[in-house]
Specification:
seven-stranded antiparallel sheet; 64 helices; 44 strands; alpha+beta; single chain
């Protein structure tokens, strides 16, 4: 029984005491005055009566009622029902108030000065019961009595209220006496009749029905809930959902369960209370245990900034003050919104639960939704009444919790039964069995306080049960079956709702409320109202005393609790299996595990070794791991299993592999089952020394996790305690149960909880002694287990070798996720990630520190578990003294074990394989044993099919040239394959330390990740035998080799010298003449330049980074030109001495000159006289590199520009790189010029409008004029300039000079205007065109839509309005005249310039890609193509990363500009490319333009010449961009040249027949551009090369002929031997200009970036291939020759070199030819000669045979608009003879569709030119039997006596011979017999056999006579021979 009300309080406005102008409330009276012992009076009630503050108001407010909740120090909740009404103040009181306000009146003129003011007064009932309606009625009644002046004294009513006693829940007894016991009260007339009313009638004597009256003619029924464990919610839950909606309430629900802060806002106090009550109701069976204040007074708002979670309600009046709360979820009940701050992440329910819960809730709240689309919806689909709906919603949440917590009782550990049950929950097992370890929500709920309370409340096995216990135990099966069907769920929910409703309203029919309300008149009349009287406390106290006395005298009411054993429900295992979340291992895998273990214990080690890799793979699955532990258990006898070394090694490896995938929680209990095994398996090391498995499996995180040890300890304690009670039960009972168990298999073993329930039931019946005995037994059981675990923990935490452990740890191995983060010591750092700080400062500590830290860890564990399981203090002290001894003892045994284990013979590791080295390549560091770990590429790991080649075990070798890994795969299935991965050291871009856990050994190894720009990645882990200092010295050597001090330290220079690492900066020059040459050059340069800055150190080439600092550069590079130079520049021979003439002739030999002469750009005759009619001349102004250091010595400039001008012009350009001609169009004579961008100061003066007032000094002015003159000279040199007729502007005119092939391509070719627009970009900018924003200065559109890019074809022509984006609106853009010269310049640099309307040049501003962009893009490209680790994130996929790298976009930009320039040149305008410093993008564009425009550059010689001229001579900074030396290390690798090669590759793909070289040639160049094997791509300019003496070296060094210094010589040499670089589809059209598609969609990723050959490393060093092949042949010869050799060969995509294993047909045939020639002893001719011979015969034959069809095919091809010309090569290679059909050269390949009826009969047998009749001695049809199992087929046989052979064809018309039988091989011709499958209806005699030395041919003629003829003819041919 409980009091309905504990206290009654009257609170009023405090007129005497106002703080800071705010009114206060004060308690006027409270009853009883003295606190009850069981519930003290709560403090601060006056604050809660007026939460918004106490204020006086000018008008009377209506009375209000709400319930506030206060929580006391014992976390008991007190419900304060506040009834507030307003009383008028009389004049003396008012005066008081005014006096108080007077001092404030100055500041607040608005103080209310009304004639009448009203003050609030509150009547408060404080109770521990939550009966809102009853309190509302009682307080209303008191108010009514006061207002209406009823006869009943107020004291009586209040006395009755305070003495009213009701049962807490539906008690079992029937209370005979009236509840409100008023019989002892002194009788007064007022309550005589009350007693009569209070005699309970029979129907009221039901359990939970209580009728109360307060003696004022009122009567109300209080229905107490049947079970008070279930919350009472009224309709508050339904209200909450109506106010906020389903999703919002679910957010709040999850937030409350995961301990977030929740704040409700509403303007109604009662609604705040209801909302909070509703939220708590749906959390059942969890109870909220944090701050809970449904109504928070305004004065206490600072509570909201508390760090702990809370649920608080605040009036909307204070909304503004809640705005700055950053981590509080705010639910606005009035507005229906829930605001979640950004920093708060709410974990939601796991799917599919969330979805199912939402569906169920919407069916409850909005049942019409389901039928809203039906044509005939059901008639009545209204939602239930609010009260019913409320219970239905709660039922949904009950159903949800039953699903969340199903099976929780199977994860309870009972660790003590007596005197009180102590229960712990095994979280990891619960999550593991539910497969929810990853689920954030459930993890947080199980870690929360609410769940801890849930376990302690519901854990005990013997207690009263409620609805939830029943649901989670008995309805799991039903819930599981119905969860997918919403209607069945709804039926279940309705059943639960009914039970909940019944619990709250046991007698819904009974409604006997009779409560008086104040009459209308009393509410309306204001004046007559008297203040609430001061009550007589004596009278009230009397009532209370009487009631207390009566209670004492009456016998105590004992409600017998119905305790029972709590059912556990079905075990978890069954639940999960049907989810299928458990990783199912096939039976086959488990079989493999079992077999392997059997082999190990049967000592069949070879078998076990074979199975091992498969077992280790299978152990990734959970069931296989469980299977392993079960199998191992069977081999343990009496806790011990002694193994030999190899068995021990295998078992440990399996254990490690099993533990490796265990998380630190060990949710599947794998580590728990292995724990007893690691202390069982052991091996004998020596006399009396045994090593146990635990010393080898320590490196796992699980051993360092406190929760794991606790869970293990508790489960063991539970088992022992269970055993304890199973024994104490008398023997026959036990045996009886066992018999039953044997008899009926479905009888299961009694669980620990059931046992505990039984013991709890019996406990009261036991004697004191028995009870004590049991408590002691349990306590000592726990104590002994604690000792056992102290030992176990020291086994697994103390390392075998403390020094090793410390070393591992110093490399920073990880943080432990443990409850005890404060304590993570090094001894426990197993294999963990990231480093951590330790208090013990482990790095320098001695091994004793390891011991200390382990002792501390075990002590903490012991403290925790012993305190929880009630171990006595004496025992605890004993444990603490014991633990250090245990640890010390263990350390001593370990020392001995460690000593002995070192003496074991090392495990046999694979032999280290030696790599083959190049000539001149030397080892710097010999092989170090490492493991090559798989990276993010799938191919080698077996995920794309085939066995995994990686991880592999082998060695890493560091040579002067490469880094090489060579080894064999760890997987035994592919153990005989050799894995090689290597890359040149010069290409190393990033080196990073990593720590790796190897699958096999479990040790964490230090490793390195090395990334190379040849698209290789090596992740290596050093073997434990490699000392860390060795690994360190490896890194240092690697760095030294990667970044030598000087370029002379690179491999290309040191090759063939001694492999010393320290390179002296000055090496003695081998070649004296070179030295004198460079000396002479330098001398001359010194004479010419007044300031001496020839020394390397002073030259600072402008980099992109310091471009802004132009002035300082100018100062440094400003050359004071003396008059003498000007003189000498005019005549060359006068100043050149004999030694310099040699230099000069060398310069003339350079590539540039050869090309200039080919292009007719000026000649250099012996007398150096120039023909004056040439427009250009070769200038020698730069012969000493004084004008521009990065330009070649000879330059092409206009004929009439003197050298002296050049010295002046060059200063306007960055790096002095002034415009020079580099190519001339053979037809239009337009020229292509290149230069750097202008210096900042030169721009404005360059484009200065002539009439602008000039303030520039005259020198600059003259320079600007000279520049104009220079450009004018170039323009006037063009033939089109002289014939200039006013054509329309650039963008409008079409190409008039298009030849046939060009006009055929008109459909796909854009007009230049469109190209222009793409390059400049315009408003409808295509992604990937140049400019991102609007265009700068439009060049007008072409008037018709472009087929090239439909987005851009808007008409710009004719718009003469000013440019909207502020581009120059100049006559230049409007004049109807084509420009003769277009300058392609950098947009950023050309801003602010003006152009003249009469100048003949135009500037095309483009956005150029910065070098830094290229660098970053390349980095991202490498990561995309060669990821370092595997990832499943969708935004980390290859294509996404490729897109992010923007590499394709950069290619698109460069190609786009190049195509534009090609078009401009083709239409007769010259173009000057003037971008950045003129050595990166400029070089790319200029080279591509020449390649596209001039077919010569698409040959071997031409391409070489192009690269030598544009890239090498014109000073692309190879060393700087390649970061080849220590100095350029910081600038990073920027592959500008690689980008160019990629562009060439894209063009090659689109025009495969236009290039003489193959794709392999481009890859070869790309690889060696980065490899530093050759000197070709080393230095930054010709100047540097001369200075080092490498420019004019003899072709190769005499002493070391096999070392090639130039990549070109090497290619030539290789090209003579084999056709690897040749493109067989080469079949160029004359003067073909290529116009590739440049959109990103047309570009392909270069396979150079993606392919890998693991068999023998990158295929670009040919000497290695030949050496490896010869080695392979030797080993093959040594091998056993008796076995038959299979012809089959498996080709692996990432292992084999495809071009080698599967060569293309032509290469194969050429090889076969060479082999045949070698066999026949002929001198084999070069492959090229053979090829050319075949080509010419093919060409003559095709010309002879079908001329007319070719012309038609040409016509056909010229009309193919989008057709790329490609070539069909059809090859047949039969076993005996072969013929080649090749479509060769332009006629044959003009179209890709073969022309019908064109026979081509060239055969290899071309030397016989005899007539056909001689060739065909006898012919006819014979049936020939095919090879084994093949059918008979008719063939046309020809007997040829001349060639002495028998040929056969498919048919008579067939020109291609199917096979040849050499008559010289024929041994006999005999009559044959018909065999299977022979032709039907043929006589027997028609068969005959032809026996040759190789095989037997079965032939058959159509008739016997015919057969005889054939036999005779063949016989005669044989005899003739």
């Amino acid at each position: 029984m409980a009091r309905l009300a504990d206290y009654f309080v009257v609170v009023g406005y405090d007129l005497d005491n106002r703080v800071e102008g705010e009114g206060q409330g004060r308690i006027l009276q409270r009853f009883p005055e003295k606190d009850w012992e069981d519930s003290p009076f709560p403090q601060g009630i006056e604050l809660f009566c007026q939460p918004s503050g106490w204020q006086l108001v000018p008008e009377r407010q209506p009375a209000s009622f709400f319930v506030a909740v206060l929580t006391d120090i014992n976390s008991e909740r007190h419900y304060c029902a506040c009834f507030t009404f307003w009383e008028g103040l009389d004049s003396p009181q008012l005066k008081k108030v005014d006096a108080g306000d007077a001092d404030e009146a100055d500041e607040e003129p608005a103080v209310v000065q009304h004639s009448k003011l009203f003050a609030p007064k509150s009547l408060v009932v404080v109770s521990r019961l939550d009966y809102t309606e009853a309190f509302r009625n009682c307080l209303g009644l008191i108010y009514t009595v006061h207002v209406d002046g009823l006869s009943t004294p107020l004291e009586t009513v209040i006395g009755n209220l305070l003495t009213c006693v009701i049962p807490v829940a539906g008690g079992s007894q029937i209370d005979e006496s009236p509840v409100c016991s008023l019989d002892k009260v002194p009788q007064s007339p007022a309550c005589d009749w009350l007693l009569a009313c209070l005699q309970p009638g029979p129907e009221e004597r039901e359990n939970s029905l209580r009728t109360i009256t307060l003696g004022a003619g009122d009567r109300q029924v209080i229905q107490t809930p049947i079970n008070d464990a279930l919350p009472v919610s009224g309709s508050s839950v339904a209200q909450l959902f109506r106010q906020l909606g389903i999703v919002n309430v679910l957010y709040l629900f999850c937030a409350a369960l995961t301990e977030h802060k929740i704040l409700f806002l509403s303007s109604s106090y009662q609604r705040l209370t209801d909302a909070c009550r509703g939220l708590l109701a749906i959390m059942f069976p969890l109870k909220y245990s944090f701050t809970y204040v449904p109504i928070l007074p305004g004065k206490l708002l600072e509570v909201l900034s508390t760090p702990t979670p809370f649920i608080i309600g605040v009036n909307s009046f204070f909304r503004s003050e809640t705005q700055e709360l950053l981590d509080v979820i705010i639910a606005d009940l009035d507005g229906g919104t829930v605001t979640i701050p950004e920093c708060v992440h709410i974990s939601l329910l796991p799917e599919p639960l969330l979805q199912q819960t939402q569906t169920a809730l919407s069916m409850v709240l909005d049942p019409e939704l389901e039928f809203s689309d039906q044509a005939f919806p059901p008639q009545s689909m209204n939602p239930s009444a609010l009260k019913i709906q409320d219970k239905e919603i709660r039922a949904v949440f009950l159903w949800l919790f039953a699903r969340l917590f199903q099976g929780y009782r199977w994860c309870l550990h009972i660790i003590r039964i007596h005197p009180e049950p102590v229960i712990r929950f095994h979280k990891a097992a619960f999550l593991g069995q539910r497969s929810l370890t990853e689920d954030d929500f459930l993890m947080k709920v199980l870690d929360g306080m609410a769940f801890a309370g849930f376990v302690s409340e519901r854990g005990p096995p013997y207690r009263a049960t409620d609805l939830f216990d029943d649901l989670v135990a008995n309805h799991v099966e039903r819930i599981r079956q119905e969860e997918a069907c919403p209607h069945k769920v709804m039926n279940h929910v309705k059943e639960l709702a009914e039970q909940l409703f019944k619990n709250e309203n046991p007698y819904p029919a009974v409604a006997m409320h009779k409560v008086q309300r104040p009459s209308e008149t009393s509410q309306s009349t204001d004046q007559s109202r008297t203040p609430f009287p001061v009550l007589d406390d004596v009278a009230v106290q009397l009532f209370i005393d009487h009631a207390v006395a009566k209670l004492k005298s009456s016998p105590p009411v004992v409600k017998a609790e119905l305790k029972s054993m709590v059912p556990s429900g079905p075990p978890l295992g069954d639940i999960v299996d049907r989810n299928g979340n458990v990783m199912a291992n096939s039976a086959r895998r488990l079989e493999v595990v079992r077999n392997c273990i059997t082999y190990i214990f049967d000592n069949k080690m070879l078998e076990a070794k074979k199975l091992m890799p498969a077992v280790l793979r299978a152990l990734k699955g959970r069931t296989a791991r469980v299977c392993l532990t079960q199998e191992l258990n069977q081999h343990v006898l009496q806790n011990r299993a002694v193994l030999d070394d190899q068995q021990f090694d295998y078992i440990v490896r399996m254990m490690n592999c099993t533990l490796q995938d265990c998380s630190h929680m060990d949710e599947h209990g794998i580590a728990a089952t292995l724990l007893p095994l690691v202390t069982a398996f052991c091996r004998k090391l020596g006399a009396g020394i045994t090593q146990f498995a635990y010393s080898c499996v320590q490196e796992h995180m699980v051993w360092t996790t406190m929760q794991f040890w606790e869970a293990m300890f508790y489960s063991d304690v539970q088992n022992h305690i269970k055993a304890l009670y199973m024994e104490t039960d008398d023997g026959n009972q036990v045996s009886n149960s066992q018999d039953q168990q044997d008899g009926s298999s479905n009888r299961r073993e009694i669980s620990a909880l059931e046992l505990a329930a039984e013991q709890n039931r019996l406990w009261p019946t036991l004697s004191k002694e028995m009870q004590m005995e049991r408590v002691q037994k349990e306590e000592s059981t726990v104590f002994s287990q604690a000792i056992h675990y102290a030992n176990r923990m020291s086994y697994l935490l103390l390392p075998l070798d403390t020094s090793k452990n410390r070393l591992l740890r110093s490399s920073g191995l990880g943080d432990v996720e443990s409850v005890s983060n404060s304590y993570v010591t090094n001894s426990i750092a197993g294999s963990m990630a990231e480093s951590y700080d330790t208090e013990s400062g482990f790095e320098d500590a001695e091994s004793s520190d390891v011991a200390n830290s382990v002792v501390r860890f075990i002590n903490r564990f012991v403290d925790k578990v012993c305190n929880e399981s009630g171990v006595t203090n004496e025992h605890l002290k004993a444990l603490h003294t014991m633990i250090p001894d245990i640890v010390q003892m263990h350390i001593e045994t370990l020392d001995a074990v460690h000593r002995e284990s070192k003496r074991l013979p090392p495990i046999q590791k694979p032999k280290l394989l030696r790599p083959t080295l190049l000539p001149g390549e030397e080892l710097v560091m010999d092989g170090m044993r490492v493991h090559l770990i798989p990276d993010g590429r799938d191919e080698a790991t077996g995920q794309m099919g085939g066995p995994p080649l990686l991880p592999a075990e082998g060695a890493i070798f560091l040579t002067t040239y490469r880094l090489i890994f060579k080894g064999t795969p760890s997987d035994a299935l592919v153990g005989e394959q050799i894995v090689t991965r290597s890359f040149p050291i010069a290409s190393l871009t990033k080196e990073k330390r990593i720590s790796v856990t190897l699958t096999m050994d479990q040790f964490v190894q230090e490793g390195l990740q090395l990334r190379s720009c040849t698209f290789q990645l090596m992740k290596i882990a050093f073997d434990e035998e490699v000392a860390s200092d060795l690994a360190e010295s490896f890194r240092k050597h690697l760095h030294k080799l990667r970044f030598p001090q000087h370029v002379q330290g690179t491999f290309a220079f040191t090759v063939g010298q001694s492999g010393k690492l320290v390179l002296e900066p000055k090496t003695k020059d081998k070649n004296q003449s070179l030295k004198t040459l460079s000396k002479n050059l330098v001398k001359n340069a010194k004479r010419t330049i007044s300031r001496q800055y020839v020394g390397r150190k002073k030259e600072v080439p402008a980099t992109w980074e310091n471009r802004s600092n132009f002035q300082s550069e100018l100062d440094e590079d400003e050359i004071s030109v003396s008059e003498e130079v000007d003189q000498s520049a005019l005549t060359l021979s006068s100043t050149i001495r004999s030694s310099d003439r040699q230099t000069m002739s060398n310069v003339v030999e350079r590539a540039c000159c050869r090309d200039y002469q080919r292009l007719g750009l000026g000649t250099l005759s012996n007398s150096l006289t120039r023909s004056k009619n040439e427009p250009f001349r070769i200038s020698t102004a730069n012969r000493m590199y004084t004008v521009c250091r990065s330009y070649p010595g000879l330059l092409i400039i206009p004929q009439n520009i003197p050298d002296s001008t050049i010295h002046r012009i060059c200063r306007c350009y960055r790096q002095n790189r002034f415009p020079v001609v580099c190519w001339r169009h053979s037809r239009t004579k337009a020229v292509l010029l290149r230069s750097a961008g202008l210096h900042a100061k030169g721009v404005v003066s360059f484009f200065k409008s002539p009439n602008a007032p000039t303030t520039v000094p005259s020198q600059a002015d003259s320079t600007s004029l000279e520049q104009e003159k220079y450009l004018q000279a170039i323009i006037s040199s063009m033939p089109s300039y002289s014939e200039s007729t006013g054509r329309n502007t650039l963008s409008g005119f079409t190409s008039t000079h298009m030849n046939t092939s060009e006009s055929s391509d008109k459909l796909r070719q854009p007009k230049i205007g469109d190209l222009m627009k793409q390059v400049l970009g315009n408003k409808e900018d295509v992604p990937g065109t140049f400019s991102r924003g609007g265009k700068w200065g439009s060049i007008r559109g072409s008037g018709r839509l472009s087929a090239y890019n439909p987005d851009i074809g808007t008409r710009l022509a004719g718009k003469e309005s000013p440019q909207p984006n502020g581009g120059p609106n100049d006559p230049l853009f409007l004049r109807q005249q084509k420009a003769y010269l277009y300058i392609i310049g950098d947009k950023a640099q050309l801003k602010g310039g003006k152009q003249d309307s009469f100048q003949q040049w135009e500037v095309i501003p483009i956005e150029v890609c910065d070098v830094r962009q290229v660098k970053n893009s390349f980095k991202k490209l490498m990561k995309a193509c060669v990821p370092s680790s595997q990832t499943t994130e969708p935004n980390m996929s290859f294509l996404r990363l490729l897109e992010d790298s923007e590499w394709m976009t950069l290619l698109h930009r460069v190609l786009q500009v190049s195509v534009l320039v090609v078009e401009l040149l083709d239409t007769g305008s010259s173009v000057m490319v003037s971008l950045e410093d003129g050595w990166d993008v400029t070089t790319q564009v200029v080279s591509l333009v020449q390649l596209l425009s001039d077919p010569y550059y698409r040959t071997f010689d031409g391409f070489r010449l192009l690269v030598e001229k544009e890239w090498l001579s014109f000073g692309h900074r190879f060393s700087h961009r390649g970061a080849q030396t220590l100095g350029s290390q910081s600038s990073g690798f920027t592959p500008v040249f690689l980008q160019f090669l990629d562009c060439v590759h894209q063009i090659h793909l689109q025009f495969p027949m236009e290039f003489e070289f193959s794709q392999y040639y481009l890859k070869f160049l790309a690889y060696h551009y980065m490899s530093n094997r050759f000197r070709t791509f080393l230095l930054d300019s010709d100047y540097d090369r001369i200075e080092l003496g490498v420019l004019y070296e003899e072709k190769s060094d005499r002493r070391n002929p096999q070392v090639c210094k130039s990549v070109w010589d090497y290619i030539d040499r290789l090209n003579k031997k084999a056709p690897v670089f040749y493109n067989y589809m080469y079949s160029p059209e004359d003067e073909e200009v290529l116009r590739p598609y440049t959109f990103i969609s047309n570009l392909k990723v270069w396979d150079f970036y993606l392919e890998e050959t693991l068999s023998d490393g990158p295929p670009y060093d040919w000497e290695l291939r030949s050496r490896q092949e010869s080695l392979a042949e030797e080993t093959a010869e040594k091998a056993d020759t008796g076995a038959p050799k299979s012809q089959r060969h498996i080709v692996w995509p990432c292992y084999d070199n495809l071009s080698k294993v599967m060569p293309d047909a032509i290469t194969k045939l050429l090889q076969d030819l060479q082999n045949l020639e070698a066999e026949l002893g002929q001198t084999s001719e070069k492959w090229k000669d053979t090829w050319d011979k075949i080509k010419t015969t093919q060409r003559t034959e095709t010309k002879l045979e079908s001329k007319p069809s070719f012309s038609s095919s040409l016509l056909m091809s010229s009309n193919l608009s989008h057709q790329r010309r490609s070539q069909g090569v059809c090859l047949q290679d039969s076993r005996v003879g072969s013929s080649i059909k090749l479509g060769l050269d332009c006629e044959a390949s003009a179209t890709s569709t073969p022309v019908a009826g064109r026979p081509s009969t060239s055969t290899l047998y071309s030397q016989f030119q005899s007539t056909e009749s001689e060739n065909r001695s006898f012919e006819g049809i014979l049936y020939k039997r095919g090879a084994l199992l093949k059918p008979w087929k008719p063939r046309w046989f020809v007997l040829d006596k001349t060639k002495h052979e028998l040929r056969y064809y498919d048919s008579r018309q067939d020109k291609d011979c199917k096979g040849v039988i050499e008559l010289s091989d024929v041994e006999s011709v005999t009559v044959g017999t018909p065999t299977m499958g022979a032709p039907k209806n043929v006589e027997e005699k028609a068969f005959f056999d032809l026996k040759t030395s190789k095989r037997m041919y079965n032939l058959c003629a159509q008739e016997s006579s015919n057969a005889q003829l054939w036999m005779d003819s063949i016989q005669s041919s044989l005899s003739d021979a």
